[in-house]
Amino acid sequence: MSQPDLYALLGVSRDADAETIKKAYRKLARQLHPDVNPDPEAQAKFQEVGRAYEILSDPQKRAAYDRGGDAFGGMGGGFGQGAGFSFTDIMDAFFGGQAGGQTRGPRPRTRRGQDALIRLEVDLAEAAFGITRELKVDTAVICPTCAGEGTAAGTHPQTCETCRGAGEVAHVQRSFLGEIRTLRPCAACRGFGTIIPDPCRECSGDGRVRSRRSLTVKIPAGVDTGTRVQLADEGEVGPGGGPAGDLYVEIHVAPHDTFTRHGNDLHCTVSVPMTAAALGTVLDLPTLEADVVPAEGATTDLETSFELDVRAGTQSGTEQVLRGRGVPGLRGGRGDLVVTIAVETPTRLGPREEELLQELAAIRGEEQPAARLKPGSRKGAFGRLRDAFNAH
Fold first, then answer.
1. Are 247 and 316 in contact (CB under 8 A)?
2. Cα–Cα distance measured from residue 369 to residue 358, given in angstroms and rounded to the nearest whole number
3. Are strands 265-273 and 337-344 parallel, antiparallel or unpaired?
4. How many angstroms separate the CA atoms of 341 and 178, rounded?
5. pLDDT tens, position by position, 76-95
6. Among residues 81, 90, 91, which one has the least CA distance to residue 177?
7. What are the Cα distances from residue 374, in Å, to 10, 371, 378?
8. Using one digit for the tens of pLDDT, what is the confidence trace for 301-319?
9. Is the pTM of this model over 0.90?
10. Contact 152, 158 (CB under 8 A)
């Protein structure tokens, strides 16, 4: 019985490479599969094509066939009787090279690096008006010795002899369906398809080393604690000298001695003497801009102070709102400055001071002041019930 021409069955030349043979088989399998083409002749042709691919896809079996050996090696014929075609390859033909979620081909040595995160503490004024800082970061960078290739000088990665560069090896298991072939990452090359026989001594073949470097980061005006500034491509360089990830600078704003921040508003408390609160006065107070240190040789037009008009008779706890004196917003605009006035009552009086205050009390008829109760926030059960009825 004459040997069948396996190359003719697949429609390829005798010098076709493995990829060409695989593509030809997939095309025929999609056309002839019993689920697609119920014609008995097509089913017989489907089995022949499967047996042909089983031989030509295996380098050893293909070499034996090219030397004139038995094409099927006594495997018999028929699906489920050792037909020789792979269940994985059938799945490949219909699902584009992925059987059971497996990815075909070697995995790349070059991959994107991870993102990096560092924390930076800034003053309130720096967070409010922005600043440029020089940072020292410790990240993975491209190996200067091998330029990311991972090999020693004068050498290059070599194709893995075990998987012949495929990055995967086939494991055949017999079952009632025939031979089921699964692909697993090659243990010799760890799925890369290449082996580095002489790794770079600097990076041990990884293509990257850790190094400390200087970096300039511009902190925009209006940032707050928790804000992250993204620096693209400034993170960790990837394995094999792959592209770097991003670097994120997380801001932490240190507490201020005078101002407290609430959103984009600033709050502060100003203490004034009892006499100044009674008579009224004008105070000259520093703004947050007074903390800004201009760059060497730079000029600034920031207003470093403001006038606070304390009107006569100002009570302790009075708030004054200065519009547009707060923190600039990241998306524009600016918050307010809220100043709370605390009236200071003297705790120690000299004889003359005490005499004058007693005279003032007599003039105002406050020598024996009558206590005046003001409604508070706490109410009894009867009061709450009364308010509920009044509300209706």
1. no
2. 13
3. parallel
4. 90
5. 333 333 344 444 455 454 44
6. 81
7. 100, 10, 12
8. 678 899 999 999 999 999 9
9. no
10. no
